[in-house]
Write a structure and sequence with these properties.
The relative contact order is 0.15. Helices cover about 35% and strands about 25% of the residues. It has helices at about 15-25, 45-55, 70-80, 100-105, 130-135, 170-195, and strands at about 5-10, 35-40, 60, 85-90, 110-115, 140-150, 160-165, 200, 205-210. With about 220 residues, it is α/β, with parallel strands linked by helices. Helix 1 (about 15-25) runs parallel beside helix 6 (about 170-195) and helix 5 crosses helix 6 (about 170-195). It has two domains: about 1-105, Formyl transferase, N-terminal domain (Rossmann fold, 3-Layer(aba) Sandwich), CATH 3.40.50.170; about 110-215, Rossmann fold. Strand 2 (about 35-40), helix 2 and strand 3 (about 60) form a beta-alpha-beta unit. Bound molecules: glycinamide ribonucleotide (GAR). Glycinamide ribonucleotide (GAR) binds near residues 16, 112, 113, 114 and 127.
């Protein structure tokens, strides 16, 4: 493992298809970084199996054995710091961390959300709940958002978004599936920008600077 390479920690709870997209992008050298640890809040998350296939260190951290959210957040932060992580990627991580997390990794944590924030975000808006809310609302477009994590829930500065048109015969399942395909494109791209030092947070906006010659693909 190289000394100056960005170390990424990925937090997961489920299937881990976004984790896979990140692994693939690193293996194809689209992203200059390495995944130092994958932490799961669920023991049976398939994401752990995916990480294991590439000998990426994994850790199951059960939120239920901690007295409160603060101590769970602290414990996760400690594990990531021990690994020297410079970027944390939330990839379908379904536990809510306290503001201490964003304070510990200022503008060093990013999240993928399966809708066009700031709509359809916040507490309780995860997985199928998001797509069901979009369909109930009658919105013609949904999509996905990669954003920096701040002290709120789904409120941090937006890095990348991709809109997806809602079809007339759409179900939450079909919408989730179609959006996921785009998540797998924009999440690795956002990480690539981060790893190359191209992201600059100005107020609530994220500027994407041009790649330095010779570093980007
Ligand atoms: C993804 O659709 C991700 O956007 C969503 O969970 C799914 C995880 O899939 N995240 C949230 O809803 C967070 N609010 P994956 O485990 O296959 O990457």
């Amino acid at each position: 493992m190289s000394k100056d390479l960005l170390k990424i920690g990925v937090l997961v709870s489920g299937n881990g298809s976004n984790l896979q997209a990140i692994i693939d992008a690193i293996r194809r050298k689209k992203i200059r970084a390495e995944i130092s640890i994958v932490i799961s809040s669920k023991a049976d998350a398939y994401a752990l199996t995916r990480a294991g296939k590439y000998q990426i260190p994994t850790l199951y951290m059960n939120p239920k054995i901690y007295p409160d959210r603060d101590s769970y957040t602290c414990a996760i932060t400690d594990e990531l710091k021990k690994k020297g992580v410079g970027l944390v990627c939330l990839a379908g991580f379904m536990s809510i961390l306290t503001p201490y997390f964003a304070q510990s990794f200022p503008w060093q944590t990013i999240n993928i959300h399966p809708a066009l924030l700031p709509a359809f975000g916040g507490v309780g808006m995860y997985g199928h709940h998001v797509h069901e809310a979009v369909l109930r609302s009658g919105a013609k477009y949904s999509g996905c958002t990669v954003h920096f994590v701040d002290e709120g829930c789904d409120t941090g500065p937006i890095i990348l978004q991709q809109a997806v048109k809602v079809q007339d015969d759409e179900t939450a399942e079909t919408l989730a599936k179609r959006i996921l395909k785009y998540e797998h494109k924009i999440y690795p791209l956002a990480i690539k920008y981060f790893a190359a030092g191209q992201l600059q947070v100005v107020g609530n906006r994220v500027l994407i600077k041009k790649a330095k010659k010779g570093r980007a693909e």
